[in-house]
Specification:
The protein is mainly alpha-helical and about 270 residues long. It is built from 13 helices and no strands.
Length: about 270
């Protein structure tokens, strides 16, 4: 992506326009990856016990007094290698990782549509602006308010994270699923639980899809959102309060992006 900068400057108009169009996503991916440099400076103020207590107070009634993420993890572990648990685990991991493919492909489709019509161009710009607001607001919150995910409590209790403790943490002790274990192990920031972008993306897509002519599209996004929220809890990656925080941030990003729009309201889908 860094090589794309001089490439875009030397390219023809179309190449430069492509880089400018996609710059918000490129910038976010680079900034998010560089959070690994900041993580050691944030460890002493990571919130651990308070999010757990709030989650248990708000949603512990669902699972008999335990937080839902821990209850789901305990149930999966109790099932061993049964067919049901393995199917649920792989489905949850597939949904959990789907945004890494779905969101870029979705923007590719929007960008191509934007080359064919002015309405498509407006739609692509609106979506990119909304996701940029969401992504960078989330990064700011991650730095100002680092929060431990539920799997950290499962693996280490309420111990304050240190560089030494992080290096000794076994992913398998906090979560099920080899794919998600591998991804979290190399993640730039382990304590970016609030807000949950996994929870925010489907909500933002649903808000942007308001008023489209095909109601089944909104319904499909809603089903995807329910699946994503469920997957993050089942995999012990997020508390429900993390997901709700993501939904609130998605609403804020949608409002900010909508205020920047000009002209008449457009249908989100052709």
């Amino acid at each position: 992506m860094l090589l794309a900068i001089p490439g875009a400057l030397l390219a023809e108009k179309r190449g430069r326009q492509f880089f400018l169009d996609w710059a918000p996503l490129f910038a976010f991916w680079l900034v998010y990856d560089r959070l690994r440099l900041l993580q050691p400076m944030l460890l002493y103020r990571v919130a651990i016990e308070s999010p757990y207590l709030i989650e248990r107070w708000a949603f512990g009634w669902i699972t008999g007094g335990d937080v839902p993420a821990h209850a789901a993890r305990a149930w999966l572990s109790s099932q061993g290698d049964t067919s049901l648990s393995q199917v649920m685990l792989w489905l949850a991991q597939t949904v959990y990782f789907s945004h890494l493919v779905f969101v870029p492909l979705f923007f590719v489709w929007l960008w191509i549509s934007g080359r064919k019509s002015e309405e498509g161009r407006e739609r692509f710009t609106h979506y990119m602006r909304a996701f940029a607001f969401l992504n960078f607001l989330a990064v700011i919150v991650y730095v100002l308010l680092p929060v431990a995910p539920p799997w950290w409590v499962t693996a280490n209790g309420f111990a304050q994270p240190t560089t030494a403790l992080i290096s000794q943490t076994r992913m398998a002790a906090g979560m099920n699923g080899v794919l998600v274990q591998g991804m979290i192990k190399t993640a730039p920031q382990w304590f970016a639980a609030v807000p949950s972008l996994h929870g925010a993306y489907p909500v933002l897509l649903l808000l942007l899809a308001r008023g489209n002519r095909s109601q089944w599209i909104s319904f499909a996004i809603a089903i995807y959102g329910v699946a994503m929220w469920s997957a993050t809890v089942v995999l012990n990656q997020h508390y429900i309060i993390d997901l709700l925080a993501g939904a609130l941030l998605a609403f804020a990003a949608w409002k900010l992006a909508s205020r920047r729009r000009t002209g008449k309201t457009l249908s989100v889908y052709p």
